Request: fold
Amino acid sequence: MTQEKPAKPSKSVGTLVWDFFCSVKLAIFTLILLAITSIAGTVIPQQLSREEYLEKMSESAYNFYSALGLTDVYHVWWFQLLLLILSINLIVCSINRFPYTWRMIVRPTNDLDEDSMFNYQLREKFHSHEAPDVLKARYEELVTKQLGKPDVAVKEDGGFSFFVERGKYARLGVYVVHLSVIIILVGALIGFVWGVRGGVNIPEGKWADTIYLFGTNGTPHSLGFGVRCDDFDVSFYDTGAPKEFKSDLVILENGAEVLKKTIRVNHPLTYKGYTFYQSSYGPTEPVFTLGVRDRASGEVQSIRVGLEGTPVPLPNGDSFQVVNYTPNLQEWGPAIQVSLIKAGQPPSTFVVVQRYPQLDETRNGAQVFTLTDMQQGYYTGLQVTKDPGVWVVYLGCIVIVLGFYQCFFMSHRRMWVTVYAGGGKTTILTAGSTNKNRDIYAREFRQLVTLMKGGEHPSSDKGKG
Amino acid sequence: MNSTALFTFSTYIYILSAAFYTIFLAFRNKVVGTIATAITAAGLGAMTIALGWRWYESYQLGHGHAPLSNLYESLVFFAWCTVLLYLIFEYKYKNKTMGAFVTPFAFLAMAYASLKVDPSIEPLIPALQSNWLHAHVITCFIGYASFAVSCGIAIMYLIKAAKEAGNAPAGGILSVFPSLEVLDEMIYKPITIGFPFLTIGIIAGAVWANEAWGSYWSWDPKETWSLITWFVYAVFLHARVTKGWHGTKTAWLSIIGFAATVFTYFGVNFLLSGLHSYGSQ
Reply:
């Protein structure tokens, strides 16, 4: 395939720019430049702080890299420019070559004749003693098996001709691939402009409605809804390697629970375009499990609660908070300090010791508190992203795979046949062409022609194969 | 005996097949060629059993995951794909001379795995517990194996082209090589398989990264090097199909592409740091 360059006597600036962008050399050059600059980005540490760089290299080296943008290669203006040049190049090349490809896709209007058959790599002329109308039925059947049903045009003299093809859209594969690259880059751009990427640490039992954006020294970003972490769990294999991290998350709209999901690594939660990923964890204050017995009814309620936080309401209208804790109170073991809030009164505080559940009986309150468990608490580290471009990128990925299928696994195979009677015999002209796998199609073409002759051995009078 | 012993055994088989393919080159004896193919096929069979066995062993250990999760398993899988692809090519092109240039890649991968890499079966850490793991590893390694086959043939091409430069067709061993024209086609063919598979592998990795880490592309060194490899083969395809580059130039591009592949696979793990460190253990 060679590029067709229409003769242009005097070139305008627009033409020069167009010619610059429609060269495949530019594409190759840009791809090589992108490869080399990308290598630089994997060798030179990226996006560190000035102090971190100075630990690794001299000040002059740092200043040099920094001035060239090599400390953030993939986001520096000239890298983006290379991507832009590649995109324009792809689009211009595709537009430029498309008419040529389109001519190969549209059905040829002219029948094959003695002159035009020499335009094709595969061609053969032979004779038969049988009349055209006898041959017609046989050829139709043979060709249909290999290439599809031909549309036969019968002539007045009894002769006929047809054109048949298979896989014509294989020719569009390269355009589909180029289009997909553009779609992916557009998706990436959408993410770059409108995307949000940040993180937040939420202790068990607490909630947050603000995340802190990455790469901005922690600029807060309001989600417009709340997310609460009810529980975090980490488990390990016998080898000590981590097995699973998971967080029970609840989405809150104006304080009301609207969605609950347990997230794990590889299984995030998405709500209103924001996706919450399990990314880290760490220790916080313990989580307490309390037994609260209503003295009047005898009913016992089990309540899990963190330190401080929102006061927990009790059936009689009072509420309480755990305000302090110790793993060991004067050799008595784990103990907490509870603050009981009665409407219109200052809060009263008292101590609950795990090992002595009867202790709180002596307080003579409306409820008796016991501490049944005190567990290590965790915060869950969530990465939160919103990337409206992701589906565009995925669309591009699907399109690129389809395009590759067309490019590499399909071929456009064409065949022309003209049959006419004259001089006491029937003359058959055949020609074929394909855009790839020439050897394979040449073999198929020969086989088909051999069958059309009704024999096993191809006779002479062949075209070059 | 366990699957690891069988993998080690197939390493010896592959050095034998490389040896027989080389003897075949030297003496052009058909029987030797047939033996070479039979040995290679036996090696592939042994490895296939060992892969299934290792999978079974992982269930016995209570982990239960496909053998595609660490450096040892990936080396073994690379060798398996390369030999399988090579045998398909040998059958298709009816030429055994490539064997001496392609089977050494499988042998080297297996020898390295057997001698230098911890073969123990480890449970999957949370980030690896995803179905994308299989799609990602299998497609990437079909790509890598295709590039290995292409690179082996490119080396053949360069040797033959150097000997034939300006002169009559080379004699001796080189006369059994396919013609330069056929070799040129044989360099190109595996890349038309490898390039789409590498692309699907990168896409599967990107979708997976988006589910695990919340970003489909982080310019992590592994990602970046896979993209660099992709650029090299994209250059190869544009140069050959559109600019009509053939022969020596495209043979070198195939070798550069495979060098980039090897660096993506090993170099990144050992020389650069990043998110993708599972492969180095």
Notes: The first helix of chain B runs from residue 3 to 27. Chain B has two domains: 1-124, 134-281. Chain B touches chain A at residues 122-123, 125-127, 129-130, 192-193, 195-196, 199-200, 203, 206-208, 210-217, 219, 221, 224-225, 227-228, 231-232, 234-235, 238-239, 241-244, 268, 272 (CB under 8 Å). Residues 102 and 149 of chain B are 6 Å apart (CA to CA).
